[in-house]
Amino acid sequence: MGLGVHITVSPDAKLVAVADGQKDILWIGRTDTLETVAAFRFNWSRTTDELIIERLSPDPSTGRFNFEGSRGLKIDWELAPGQEYTIDYGKVTGASPENVTALDALVFNPKIPIAAATLRRVGLVVIFDTRGWVPVGVIVPAKDATERFIQAESLSGHQHGEEKIWSLKFKRVAAIHQAGFDPTGRFLIVANKYLRDPTKGWDGLYHDLAVIKHGIEDPGKDHHHIAEDLERHLKEPGALGYIDFGEYEAFHIGFLPDGSKVYISAWAPPPRINKVAVIDTSQWKIVKWIDIGPDVHTVQATYDGKWVVVVYSGYQKIRSGIAIIEASNDEVVARLNSPYGHHDHVIVPRNVEDLKISRSTTT
User: Fold this and answer.
1) Is 260 buried (19+), middle (13-18) or exposed (0-12) by CB count in 10 A?
2) Based on the domain organization, do 227 and 350 belong to the same domain?
3) Structural element, H or E, at residue 226
4) Is residue 229 helix, strand or coil?
5) 205 and 231 fall within a common domain
6) In the chain, what is the greatest distance between 2 CA atoms, to the nearest angstrom?
7) What is the CATH number of the domain that holds 308?
8) Tens of pLDDT along 120-147?
């Protein structure tokens, strides 16, 4: 398939998912054999406001997909942070940038059989029933959205296993980037970005963090039950809340293992010093901002809940390193300076149980 960037492992360690934002392809396979379980491609029509989700199948004669190497690339580079709107203004080259959804990652719910794929450019979170890998529909997390959940309509059969193409109509309200489930599996948080003034570049963007209580307690027999639950619960008062990030992009997400706090890297271009926002999840409010350094990226807690590790890349040309935060008082207690910068990091799980609170459930 020739894919990157984000790779996640299911909480039971049986599946691995790879999401590619240049090809808009999501692949899910078995960790023991790397046999394909499911694969999808996402396409957006800006003229019709339609999202098409297509299940991909390998060539039956070869057993291989026709997306090796650079085949299937829509754009010539992966969109950097804050670049979700640049395609609209002709600043990104490639074979078909107008159809790009900018798939970011697939994150797995740690408790129930659903997973969420984030489509950065169009501001949608695709919810999958992982028992049969069916796209149930999309959550629209933007504050100004008039529809919270839109069910995916099958265009190619309605029996289980026959569905190959799904479609849904929507109106883009905002772009998004990262998303993640909390350790209880009850909440999904999504980073929104709104284009307020296209003439001001970065300063024309506004950011917040959506906190979504999805309401799925029992997934039922099939994906129809999940769709009905989402449709009903996301209309209830208090189902969605928002945390203001202003000029900073709410970026990567890291929960403490007990779910009591979540750490969000707050990103902005230079000369701003990037930060980490500490959020108390009992009230879903920011209780502290921590200065980190230029170009902050991933943030993750150790599995004993004592330390939070943050990397900052310095845009590959300023100072870069790894910051260690003590979770008990949210103070930076150490810095490991390193050259050339970092993008992502992961603390390797000690066992399968750790996967439920790893970067497989959040990005």
Assistant:
1) middle
2) no
3) helix 223-233
4) helix
5) yes
6) 59
7) 2.130.10.10
8) 999 999 999 999 999 999 999 999 898 9
pLDDT, tens only, 272-308: 889 999 999 999 999 999 999 999 999 999 999 999 9
Question: What pLDDT does residue 318 have?
Answer: 78
Give the C-alpha separation, 318 to 310, whole Å.
16
Q: Please compute Rg for the chain using Cα positions.
A: 19
The yes-or-no verdict on residue 159 having pLDDT over 70 is: no
Q: How far apart are CA 50 and CA 211, in angstroms?
A: 25
Confidence of residue 249 (pLDDT cuts 50, 70, 90): very high
62/52 Cα distance (integer angstroms): 26
Q: Please state the domain count of the chain.
A: 2
Considering only 33-37, 42-46, 218-222, 224-228, which range has the smallest mean pLDDT? 218-222
**Which one of 197, 213, 247 terminates a domain?**
247
Same domain, 297 and 203: no
**Cα end-to-end distance, the chain, whole Å:** 22
Q: Which of 215, 247, 279 is the last residue of a domain?
A: 247
Element (H, E) at 245: strand 240-246
Mean pLDDT value across residues 154-173: 74
Judge if 132 and 66 occupy the same domain.
Answer: yes
> The domain containing residue 238 runs over which residues?
1-247
CA distances from 98 to 8, 49, 89, 94, 168 (A): 27, 12, 10, 9, 17
Q: Which two tokens stand for residue 250?
A: 């709410």
State whether 14 and 84 are in the same domain. yes
Same domain? For 236 and 260 the reply is no
Same domain, 180 and 321: no
- Given a contact cutoff of 8 angstroms between Cβ atoms, the answer to whether 139 and 215 are in contact is no
